[in-house]
Amino acid sequence: MPGLDELSQHKSDGLRTAARHPVPKGEPILEMRALQKKYGAVEALKPASITFLSGEVHAIVGENGAGKSTLIKLLTGVIRRTSGEVFWCGKLVQLDNPQEAIARGINAVHQEVVLCPHLSVAANMFLGDEINNAGLMRKRAMTEAAQSVLDDLGFNLPAAATLGSLTIGQQQLVATARAAMRGTQFLIFDEPTAYLTRQESAQLFRLIRRLQGEGVTIVYISHRMEEVFELADRVSVLRDGTHVGTRKIGETNDAELITLMINRTIEQIYHKEHFAVGEPIIETRGLSGPGFEDVSLTVRAGEIVGLYGLIGAGRSEFALGLYGRHAATAGEVYWQGRKVNIANERKAMDLGIALAPESRRDQGLCLNLPIGLNINLPIFNRLTRGLTINRQKEIENADRQIRDLKIKTPSRRVLASAMSGGNQQKIVIGKWLSHGAKLFIFDEPTVGVDVGTKAEIYRLFARLLENGAGIILISSYLPEVYELSDRLHVFRRGRLVASHDYRAASHEEVLTQAIGV
Amino acid sequence: MSAETVDSGTGPAPRKGVSILFGLTLLGLLLFLWLLLGLATNSFWTPNNISNLLRQGAMTAILAVGQTFVIITAGIDLSVGAVVGFTSVIVAWLLAAGVPLWIAIILTLAFGVLIGAFHAFGIVRMGLPPFIITLATLTSLRGIGLLITNGSTISITNEAFTNFSRADFLGVPSLFWMVIVVAIPAYVFLHLSRFGRYLFAVGSNSEAARLSGVNVHRTIYLAYILSSTCAAFVGLLLASRIGIGNATQAEGWELQAIASSVIGGTSLFGAVGSVHGPLLGAFILATINNGANLLNVNSFWQRIITGVLIIVIVYFDQLRRRGAR
Q1: For residues A245 and B117, which has the higher predicted lDDT (pLDDT)?
Q2: Is residue B134 part of a domain?
Q3: Residues of B with CB below 8 A from A377's CB?
Q4: Hey, which end of chain B has fewer CB within 10 Å, N or C?
Q5: With an 8 Å Cβ cutoff, is A392 touching chain B?
C-alpha cells in the first residue's frame, strides 16, 4: 500500500518509529502475563495469559460479559489493569493510556462507530492528524489522499461525502481505513460485522486478509462462528472473565468452541418445539408501504414465520408498516379474518400486535430511564386508577417481569442504559409480555445478545406459541431463522421473493434468493 | 459490554434516591442561605422581608414548573417571559373593556392555552425546533402587546383584582399560596400520573415511546400548553401586582425560569426533572437577590453571582450523577 506509507511518514516521533519495526512473522508481538482487571471486588478479567503472534488473525470469542470488552480496553489503554504484565515486542510496557497504545501501533475498530457524522469521510480519516500547510488545512490534498486510500482498499466510497450520509456498515469501513493508514501494527476488531451487509462484510474480510498479508496482527472479536472459522488462525475463548483456552483453528470445531463458551450444545441453543397450527391471526394481501411492496403472507396461531433477507431488504419496514408506524399505500390486512385498517401504533397494540423493534437503542428503550418505567410504558393506562398510577401495581408488574425473565439487575430503578445487550432485549420483551398480544414481531431479537440469553429467548418463543400466539421473526442471521421458522419468507429489495417450509430449502438456496444472483 | 458494570454491582444508584438527595441538598442550601442572611443582617428575618421574598420568588417558581415540563420532553420554552407581558396586557385590556373579572381571567388563561398549542403545532406539524418556534413567539408576542397598547400601558382600576396580590392568607402572601395551588396538581401530574411518565419517555426516546403506544404528539401539546398556561397565570399575578398591563414587562424571565429549573436538577437533555427542584431553584435565586439587596450589593454583582451559582450547582449535580455510576 504505497499511499499509506507515504501518508504515515509525515509523522514520526520516537514511539512511532519503534512501532514500525515489527517482530518477525510468527514471533510473539504482544504477550499478556496474568493480566487481571477488578472493578471493586468483582473480577471482570481473571488473570489471563494470552500470546498474540505477529501477523496472525487471533479470534476472541465469548458471551457478553465474558470479559472481551475488558480485554480490548486493557490492550488499548482505555482502562488500567489491576495486576499482571504486558510485553510489546518483547519489552515490558505500561499501556495505561490510549495515546501510548496508538503511538505503539495498537488500534481498535469499535462496533459502534466513534467518528464525527457531520464531517466528510476524508476529514474523519485525517481527524487529529490533518495535513497542514502553514497552519491551514489542505482540504483538497486530504480528500485526494483519502480517496486514493479508499480506492486502493477497493471500498468504492466517496471521500468527499459526509460520513453521516453513509450506512453504518460503510462508516465502519471508513473507521477501518482510518486505522489502516495510521501505521497500525496491531488492530482489534470488536464485532465488526454486526451492522454490515454481506457485501460489506466481504469487503472487510478482504481488507483484514490484506492487512494480515502486510504483517499486521489482527484480533477479531465476534459472536459469529462461521466468521471465526473463515478468518482466524487461532482462537481464544473467554467465559465469565476466565481465559478457558486457545486453539489452532484447524484443530477445533464450532461445537467445541461453543461448549467452551457456554457449556451447552448447539441443539440446546436453537430450542424448537412444534405446536398444532391454528387459525390465521393476521393475513396481508398485496401490502405495500414505504420500503416494501406487494407483500402477502399469513401468520397462524402456534407458528413462527421467519423473514430473512439482507439489511435493507424491507423486512423491518414491513414490520413497522404492519404495526401502524407508517401508513400502507396499498393492499389489505386481515386480523383474525376481519379486514382492518391499522392507522397507528395504539390501534395495533389494541388489536394484539406487539413489536420488539430492530434497534433497542433507537426504537426499543428509553435508555436513560429506569428499567421499571420501560417495562410499564405500554400499560400505564391500565395501571392508572382515577387520576394517578397505582404505585403498588406498577412496582409489582416491573418486579414480576424482572424476576420471570431473569433480568440481571439489583433493582427496577436502575437505568436501562446500564444493562448489557441481552438484558436490554429482555426489558423490551418484558414490555410486551406485560401488555400481552396475539402476534409478536421480533425484529433482530438476538443481535448483541449472548448465547445464554439467546437460548432463553428461543425458549420464550415456545412458551408464547404454546399459549396460542403467533410470531414473526426477523433476522439477518440465517441459522437463527432457518432453525426456528415453521415458514420462512425471503425478502429482497422490498419484495417477498420466496417462501419455504421448515428446513425445506438449503442454506445456499435461501442465501442465493436473498442476494438475487 | 455494560454487563460488567452491572455484574460488579456498581450500577447507577437508584434514580429516586438521587432525586430526593438532590432535593435535600438544595433545601439545605436554601436554609443555609437563610441562616447566613439572618446572621449577617438584622432585616432578613422580619415578617415584611419574608413576605417580600415569598412574593418575589413566587412568580419565577410558577414559570419554572411549567418550563420544567417542557424541558423534560427535551424541549425549551423561550416565550414564557413574553407570554407574561402579553397576558398582562390582555387582562388589563379586557378589564378596561368592561369584561367581568372572572371571564377576563378565564379568557386570559385561554390565551395561554392557545399560545402553547401553537408552539406544539409548530413543533409537531411544521417540524420546527422548540428553540426556534418559541423564540419567534417571544418576539412577536411582545410586538402584538405593544400594538394593542400602542406602546404604552393600560391601567387596571379593578380593586378586587389589584388587591389580591397584596393580600395575605393565614399570614402568608396570597402570591405564595398560588405557588402551592400550582405545585400540588403539578406534582400529581408529573410524578403520580401516567402523563408524567409519558413526558419522561418522550424526552428520553420519542421513537421508543411512540412504538410503546404513547401518543407523542399529544404529550408535546400537553407540555407546551401547560408551560404557556403557567405563564399566562403568572401574567395575571403580575398584572395584579403592578396594577397595569404592559407588554414589555417580565423581560428575561424566561431565563430566570430556565435557570431555576436547571438549578433544581432538570437536565436540558430531557428525561430528568421534578416539581420540587425548580421550586427550590426559584426561591434560591429569589433569596440571593433579596439578600444582595439587604447587604447593599450592587445589582450588577447579583447577576454575576447568579451566573456563577448556576455553574457551580449544575457542575456538582453532574459530578454526583457521575459518581453514582
Answers
A1: B117
A2: yes
A3: 197, 201, 208-209, 212-214
A4: C
A5: no
Cβ-nearest to A377 among B188, B214, B215: B214
On chain B, the residues whose CB falls within 8 A of the CB of A325 are 210-211
Residue of A42, A349, A377, A440 to mutate when probing chain B, most B C-beta within 10 A: A377
> What does each C-alpha distance from B112 to A343, A470, A483, B226, B239 come to in angstroms?
32, 49, 59, 8, 15
Please list, in sequence order, all residues whose beta carbon lies within 8 angstroms of the beta carbon of residue B117, skipping any fewer than 6 positions away: B221, B224, B225
In this prediction, the answer to ipTM > 0.85 reads no
> What is the domain count for chain B?
1
User: Are the beta carbons of A345 and B213 separated by less than 8 Å?
Assistant: yes
Least confident of A75-79, B3-7, B113-117: B3-7
User: Position of cell 396594577?
Assistant: B243
Q: How many CA atoms are closer than 13 Å to the CA of A423, on its beta-carbon side?
A: 28
Structural domain includes residue B49:
no
CATH code: domain of residue B117? 1.10.3470
The model's pTM is 0.77
What's the burial of A163, exposed, middle or buried (CB within 10 Å: 0-12/13-18/19+)? buried
Domains, in order of start, for chain A: 13-120+163-263 (3.40.50.300), 280-515 (3.40.50.300)
Q: Round to whole Å and give the CA distance between A222 and A201.
A: 13
Cβ-defined contact of A414 to B194 (cutoff 8 Å): no
Which residue range(s) make up the domain with B157?
58-323
Looking at the predicted structure, is the pLDDT value of residue A231 above 70? yes
State how far the Cα of A4 lies from the Cα of A10, in Å rounded to an integer: 11
pLDDT band at B71 (very low <50, low <70, confident <90, very high): very high
Alpha helices in B79-215 (DSSP H): 80-96, 101-124, 130-149, 159-164, 174-187, 194-204, 206-211
Q: Is residue B8 part of a domain?
A: no
Please check whether residue B80 is in contact with residue B261, taking contact to mean a CB–CB distance below 8 angstroms. Answer: no
Nearest-by-Cβ selection for B201 from A68, A369, A408: A369
Write down the pLDDT at residue A359.
86
Say whether pLDDT at A267 is over 70: no
